[in-house]
Amino acid sequence: xxxxxxxxxxxxxxxxxxxxxxxxxxxxxxxxxxxxxxxxxxxxxxxxxxxxxxxxxxxxxxxxxxxxxxxxxxxxxxxxxxxxxxxxxxxxxxxxxxxxxxxxxxxxxxxxxxxxxxxxxxxxxxxxxxxxxxxxxxxxxxxxxxxxxxxxxxxxxxxxxxxxxxxxxxxxxxxxxxxxxxxxxxxxxxxxxxxxxxxxxxxxxxxxxxxxxxxxxxxxxxxxxxxxxxxxxxxxxxxxxxxxxxxxxxxxxxxxxxxxxxxxxxxxxxxxxxxxxxxxxxxxxxxxxxxxxxxxxxxxxxxxxxxxxxxxxxxxxxxxxxxxxxxxxxxxxxxxxxxxxxxxxxxxxxxxxxxxxxxxxxxxxxxxxxxxxxxxxxxxxxxxxxxxxxxxxxxx
Length: 396
Hints:
Layout: E1 29-32, E2 63-66, E3 76-79, E4 83-89, E5 93-100, E6 102-105, E7 121-125, E8 128-135, E9 138-146, H1 152-155, H2 158-165, E10 167-171, E11 234-235, E12 272-273, E13 281-282, E14 285-289, E15 299-301, E16 306-311, E17 315-320, E18 325-329, E19 343-344, E20 349-352, E21 366-373, E22 379-381, H3 385-394
Antiparallel strand pairs: 1-6, 2-10, 3-4, 4-5, 5-9, 7-8, 8-9, 11-14, 12-13, 14-21, 15-20, 16-17, 16-19, 17-18, 18-21, 21-22
């Protein structure tokens, strides 16, 4: 089922044109959800003494964590007022669970994902498995990221589902959130484009033969910075362009891959569950090539102020103050400029763009994902293309 805005009449988004003001495009907004605490356990301390959870009650929502996570020395808890993440490194996989009480509401007229109550939805493929649900009116998500693509924990989503369904209430606070927590966004970017020659294809226009895109003009994150430190950068397919598995023969380093216009690839043909896409499956993010093919040369940066909530096998997760979650894939993981739990500011360096993907070969590029608790109905991947077009136009 699609829930992105379809066919919204706004300023024209075509090659070489971009609305210059936030009011010219339909933008999402954020709000804080009133959670419903379980009777008798509201705001309770952890059920047993655990120093690594000493600050759990500073997170103002029910904190769910699989109990066996605490058996690992690698256990880490990163808590903010309105969201948290807990993770472990376990036998070649990074297991993480996160929760939030920030909901992102698309503009009026948008189609929302179905309400499923506490029903878990899940999917697996490409070295990860995921599961999400809504409980106590907060949204929760488990992600399993494997070093080996064939690891059963990432081939089959049942493992992620078991982690989420078996998570225990470990505490959480009942105080009222501070005003600073309510969807604080990064400042608007200055009107200094990366490249005056920048052109882009309309949202949803994919490389021919690569799938059917979602024609969404909604800007889900209207105030972000572009995630690559310096331009030019080229948003296009790694798979259907020159040198890709389904593209023309040649090298992925071909100069033709480093040209405008941009092409959306959020809904490229994949087996990954992506409700925003017409087929119900897709790429879940977009691929961005830096200025050239050199490895570990170009920096990926924070798109807004926030916290690094997880560092996985080949992924770094940033949760912004706006409540949006950003996943950065394929950076040089042994040369990151941040650590899990670190606070970052907009434009701060995170890592060098590379091709780390466990043991799976891939070109040098940044895969960038945007997840939100859409309408308070759980974590979902939403199309980042229009937000990135806007950021690229004015985020230098």
